[in-house]
Amino acid sequence: MAKLKRLVDRNDNLIEIEVPVSDVELQERKELYEKLPPNRFATKFRSTLFRPVKTRLKGQEFVIQMNCCMSPYCSNFGLPQVKYDVKGKPQRYTLDSNSQKSRLYCNSALIELNTNNTLGCVNTTLSNWAIAEEIKRLEEINSVVPMETEYQFHRDDCEHQDKTPFNHRDSFRSRGKSTSNSPKYQCKFCSKITNVLPTNCQSTTYHQKRNDILPIFAELITNHVPVRRVVKILGIGSETYYHKLKWLYRRCLEFLERHEVKLKDTYLNELFINTDKMVYYLNNSKKKNAGSRYLENEDEKNFQTHVVVSSDILTRYVFRADVAYDWDITFTEINDQTQAFKDDHLHSFAQRFGHLKHSYSPQPPTQFDIQSEYEYKKEYAEFTKRADYVNGLHVNSTYTTIAHLWHIRQLLNVKEWRFVTDQDTSIISALMRVFSKEVRLSDLHHFICKIVDKRKSLSENMKVYGEARFDLKEWALALGIEEKNTFQIARLKLEHELKSHHFFEETNKEGKTFRKWAQNPITHPLPFKDTGWATVDVTTDVSSLESRELARLIQKTNNKSTDTFINQIRRGITILERPLVSSRGDGKSYIYSNSNPKYAQYAITILRTCYNFCTPYKAFKKDQKLTSAQRIGIADKVYDWKDIIYFR
Q: Can you give 422-476 as a three-state secondary structure string?
């Protein structure tokens, strides 16, 4: 019997992270904190840059170390730090920590030592510990665990304390069920009556009053009905609204847990994944008794918040959608971490909370600190001022994207990975760090798809599409090609162009010829009906692919799957819609924007479940209407809200 489940609490330790700082080093930090200036203190403990962090999830151990080269054409790509046993003891990477952001350089001097293609790449450093923390956060917010409770089936003076209804059913009488549909048992010896949590089969709506409105509630919140209107239509209070939103979110996670486990068992020979980010502005209202909301700075009110989305291009199945915001972190926790590990004097790549907007708590200046007392008080005031707003802190979107892709890598069983993104450096950086092994083995290729002109209207793009179709047929006629299918002609033209088009260029250095990314995109021979012409570039080495195979891959490249889901978010969820023009005409208004990213995550997950399992569509005119889950092979029917809520 399946037990009732609940959302994961931070105390559950779903993922165990091994602290990457030894007791000896921690004691050394405490001794040197007052004796060294901050820059020398940070230099002393910069070895954490390449120190791996061990994590354990579901019985498996993973090692997180993602500070490496991110250029696929460089021979150092994805490789760890190493010291060469030659004169001078040079290292694979050198660190420049003098700038505001620490940079990692591929040591170009090593080209004289071997024939490898070392390009002198510049890479951004990240905190491995912070990456592990973000991986843990995303696992926790997308998981549920069984409800466990300790029962007292006997009175204190009863002699049969070891007997329970689960192992000695004959020692108990059944006393029916409570008002919440939970079974009641009475001990035959001491007559104590105890309520037991029901199973999922016994009660799908445990502690839910008015559960009959849940399907209507789900339809309303995913069809652009504002919060106050939902409250009015259903006749509930605002607290009940958010309680039911959380309950429905948990139900969707339970439903996804049962079905998405099939993805791990489904072997996919090739998968096209489109990853993109949606940006919305958090309506960051002040808490009660935290000062007037009308006197706050506009920059503080409208924090830019990112949502990372990944979906299958061919089936439109949305694998994940994660908000880059940690709503469980507290300023007390950050302060305790800073005082214990001296994070305020460390580089960001050595900090546990290096992924957060406030990665450490400002501390009073030490004897050799270059920071004045006035500067400290100003920095501390900014730190504490953030506590006046909604709980939690924004997360650097690069860290969220890394954790997002890491979980997708664990979820899917794929032989050939094909990733499509726009030219977002944070997404590309995350992709190269997480899938470095697959890129080195040429099991993954990354495509950049960009729309040439976004200013054109739909009618203009339709006209361009019609003209392009005519030109393709003229081109085929001139070459004597009898193919009538426009898409096949487009592929043939693309194949013809790729014979003379290269996505890499060759350079000579120290008498050796090396390849590097040329940033030389190719134009799609057939524009899209709604967006017009698009260009495609490839950042990975595709020189081993034949032009025919490469043309097939490029023709499938597009951003439609994530664009479609993001449009559904904008049109379906009121709190995440596009900004409105203010009535006074003085700019954009975010009056309906979400004020707590936790509820944004809830609403997006609920919408994702409905989008994948309950929304059938036709891929082309003669196609059968199927849902994304049916197309990818983890569902055999179109589900509805009653199936999800009541587990039918």
A: CCCHHHHHHHHHHCHHHHHCCCEEEEEEEECCCCCCHHHHHHHHHHHHHHHHHHH
Q: Indicate whether 525 belongs to any domain.
A: yes
- 244 in Cβ contact with 217 (< 8 Å): yes
SS3 107: coil
Give the phi and the psi of residue 186 in degrees, each rounded to 5.
-125, 130
Q: Quick check: 313 and 569 in contact, CB under 8 A?
A: no
Question: How far apart are the C-alpha atoms of 104 and 126, rounded to whole Å?
Answer: 10
Closest to 616 measured CA to CA, from 361, 383, 315, 227 = 315
* Rg (alpha carbons) of the chain, rounded to whole number: 29
Domain count, the chain: 2
Single-letter code of the amino acid located at 353: F
Q: Which of 532, 558, 584 is the last residue of a domain?
A: 558
Decide if pLDDT at 427 tops 60.
yes
Sign of CA dihedral 543, 548, 550, 551: positive
Is the residue at 274 inside a domain?
no
For the chain, the maximum distance between any two Cα atoms, rounded to a whole number of angstroms, is: 98
Dihedral, 345, 349, 355, 357 alpha carbons, nearest 10: 40
233-264 pLDDT, tens digit each: 999 998 999 999 999 999 999 999 999 999 98
Is 342 within the bounds of a domain? Answer: no
Does residue 302 fall inside a structural domain? no
Domain that holds residue 182: 160-203
Among 524, 558, 592, give the residue marking a domain's end. Answer: 558
Strand order in the sheet with 183-187: 172-177, 183-187, 193-195
> What does the pLDDT look like over 21-41, one tens digit per residue?
999 999 999 999 999 999 899
Query: pTM of the prediction?
Result: 0.92
